[in-house]
Write a structure and sequence with these properties.
- This protein is of the alpha/beta class and 289 residues long.
- The chain is 35% helix and 26% strand.
- It is built from 10 helices and 13 strands.
- A 9-stranded mixed β-sheet has the order 3-8-9-2-10-1-11-12-13, with helices on both faces.
- The chain is elongated and about 75 Å long.
Amino acid sequence: MRELVIISGKGGTGKTSLTASLAVLAGRVVMADCDVDAADLHLLFPPRNGDKQPFYSGHEAVIRPADCIGCGLCLTYCRFDAVRMVGSASGPTLFSIDPAACEGCGLCVHFCPTGAIDFPERLRGEWMIANTRIGPMVHARLDVAAENSGKLVSLVRKQAREFAEKEGYGLIITDGPPGIGCPVIASLTGASQVLVVTEPTVSGEHDLGRVLGLARHFDLPAAVCVNKWDLNPEMTERIESKARLSGAQIVGHIRYDPGVTRAMMQAKSVVETDAPAAEDIRRIWQMLR
């Protein structure tokens, strides 16, 4: 089974628009939206009939008031200032834990003399496999300020692969996270090929170098395309030259086209419209096939 992962050095480079168009051109494909911190592929392909599944990651400490004796050891040991003293001056002194401040280290659980602190898994978001008008999509949503997006990315990819194997799909196209952090690493391991989308700017050139370095680390064949290349042809040429020196394949570039924005406003991929940039994307797909 082949998995094409589309990434970029930063957000806003057109990664999701390109992912959507390539999925349409691919035909029979499973889509995986691994940009779990800001998932938006579902805006172009509204999901239908998906069963939401909870995503648990890490733990949080919860004090049972009935069993708390008010010794204050949890307050003493907590390095994250998550423990709060509650109760009135005339009543018993008890403690509670702020879930937003709790880092889930479990130290208070270990030292509580009465075992009055529970340590359940923490609900961090949800994921689902849903049908869309062009095929199945696995996607997820991480709760606000929740961590462990790398773990959720791995879960989305695992579910996409299992679904593809079960239903006989030969290709997965993954909309990866931006940057080079843990979520991106989780989206690359075990992939077949990576397509890096960048823009003809100084920051785009810098980010591309970092992303290609990451692809080399995982020994992944990398392809590059420059979005809005005609805004700065000289920079485009410089970026493509450096990409070739890094061993990446140049699969084409995409012109600046207001039709891309109009396609998004219509909840369509670019290749489903008559936008001139659609031809650029079709040529890129021919290079990637």
